[in-house]
Design a protein that fits this description.
By secondary structure, this protein is an alpha/beta fold. It has a domain at 100-210 and 301-431: Rossmann fold, CATH 3.40.50.1110. The protein has 14 helices and seven strands. It has helices at 9-38, 43-56, 123-144, 165-175, 189-199, 211-215, 221-244, 253-283, 285-288, 290-293, 302-326, 349-354, 363-382, 411-431; strands at 77-80, 84-87, 115-121, 151-157, 182-187, 331-335, 386-389. The longest helix has 31 residues, at 253-283. The radius of gyration is 25 Å and the shape is globular.
Length: 437
């Protein structure tokens, strides 16, 4: 019986190669289909490539360019004698000489300054200005007319800022002669989420975020280990970004989705270690002394703590209102949205997977604190403050808007918030007395 001739080696190699290419193409088509069904489309690939470029060279960017994945670069924050902390502009381009985000300040018209909307708050406010500040500019420009010159929306906000930092920032920059035409305060989340999760039972809850770590040395072996772990994770992020930035995998939808998944894992680990470092610093506050711990305090229950936090938030906002109005500046206060506010948004499958953690350390503060902020917000309104509760602004949306498990949204989410703020600012300007330039 004649045996079939063995397949020639070149033909065998060709068939294996074709099978591999067909498999790769099938996987790529599956990834493209997933992108289309998720609503993100091919545009997500550009965001991910830019995110990797940021990890490799953060100094080339004014801030994280994407919220599609957690992006954290080595800390460039430094102590500030009045504001708690700012960003060292010599280590981060895109920040002003005062260490705050440079928001593309419009060129001053002849003989005057641009019409300036100053936005105060934390990272949510900073991100909103960066991603969607143009919507506020358009609304203001339509209200005031072109004769007033260019409009500039500027962020006086840094990630982690919480009251009274916004109040102090407003007072500080007014004392330096800064000219604001409108003051917007967009906050609330940091005030109730951060103290309970990060300050512990020793560090005064109204002190700036991470205060013990900012003013103490790292002689504790556990803290040294955590700092080393953070440095190692930063290097792993860079290595991973460098590998996935090489052609051709940099343009592969499948490879980009794989990188996003791996980066999310690294980002989650880094966030956990950073929170543990803050927690340990907080626990050591009493041993570190008054400089790190601040004045002694005692709250009999979580309810008392969150009531105090909401009360401090309200009083700081009222003081901002009084300071702004006394200088002839309209003041508007907005409570930012958050996914952990019960019933505030129907979360999509993508948000459940990427922007929700059942045991997130900030969730307790949001659930306990936001009802108090809403109530205190009504008190602000009764006392003449232009207060607006945006905690339910996404209630009717079934699109994916939240971008991480903390509090941030994607560009579409910021655009929705900015459009609402722009409308309210325009209405406030319409009610305000007009002054010719």
């Amino acid at each position: 019986m004649t045996q079939p001739a063995p397949m020639a080696l070149p033909r065998r190699i060709l068939l294996v190669t074709l099978a591999a290419l067909l498999s790769a193409l099938t996987i790529e088509l599956f990834s493209i289909t997933w992108l289309w069904l998720s609503g993100r489309g091919i545009g997500l690939l550009g965001e991910l490539r830019e995110a990797r470029a940021y990890l490799l060279d953060p100094e080339a960017f004014p801030g994280p360019p994407s919220q599609s994945v957690p992006l954290q670069s080595p800390n460039a924050e430094v102590l500030h004698p009045y504001l708690g902390f700012v960003v060292d502009p010599s280590r981060r381009p895109g920040y002003t000489v005062h260490g705050l985000p440079a928001s593309g300040k419009a060129e001053a018209p002849p003989g005057g300054a641009p019409f300036t909307v100053a936005v105060f708050g934390g990272s949510f406010a900073e991100g909103m200005v960066r991603e969607a500040g143009g919507a506020i500019e358009d609304a203001v420009r339509e209200e005031i007319g072109g004769g007033r010159g260019p409009v500039s929306v500027q962020a006086f906000a840094i990630g982690g800022y919480k009251q009274p930092q916004q109040l102090l920032a407003l007072a500080y920059f007014l004392s330096l002669g800064e000219r604001f035409d409108v003051v917007v305060n967009l906050d609330g989340f940091n005030e109730v989420a951060l103290p309970g999760a990060e300050n512990g039972e020793m560090v005064f809850p109204f002190y700036p975020r991470g205060w013990p770590a900012r003013v103490s040395n790292f002689i504790d072996p556990r803290k040294l280990s955590m700092v080393a772990t953070l440095a190692k994770l930063d290097e792993e992020q860079k290595t991973l970004a460098r590998r996935f930035s090489a052609f051709p995998i940099s343009v592969s939808p499948t490879a980009n989705l794989v990188w996003r998944s791996l980066q999310r894992g690294l980002g989650s680990r880094r966030s956990h270690v950073s929170q543990e470092l803050d927690r340990l610093s907080g626990e050591q506050g009493s041993r570190l002394g008054y400089l790190a711990a601040g004045p002694g305090f005692h709250y009999g229950s979580d309810g008392e703590l969150y009531d105090a936090l909401a009360g401090g938030w309200m009083r700081a906002s009222l003081a901002m209102h009084q300071l702004a109005v006394s200088n002839g500046i309209p003041y508007l206060h907005f409570l930012q949205p958050n996914q952990y506010v019960p019933g505030s948004k129907p979360l999509t499958a993508a948000e459940r997977a990427n922007a929700w953690l059942e045991d997130h350390p900030y969730r307790r503060g949001v659930e306990a604190g936001y009802p108090l902020l809403v109530r205190r917000g009504r008190e602000l309104g009764a006392r003449g403050v232009s207060f607006h509760d945006l905690s339910g602004i996404f209630r009717g949306s079934e699109r994916s808007l939240y971008a991480d498990t903390c509090c941030h949204v994607n560009a579409e989410g910021y655009a929705i918030v900015a459009a609402e703020i722009g409308r309210e600012v325009a209405l406030a300007l319409g009610r305000a007395p007009r002054h010719d330039p």
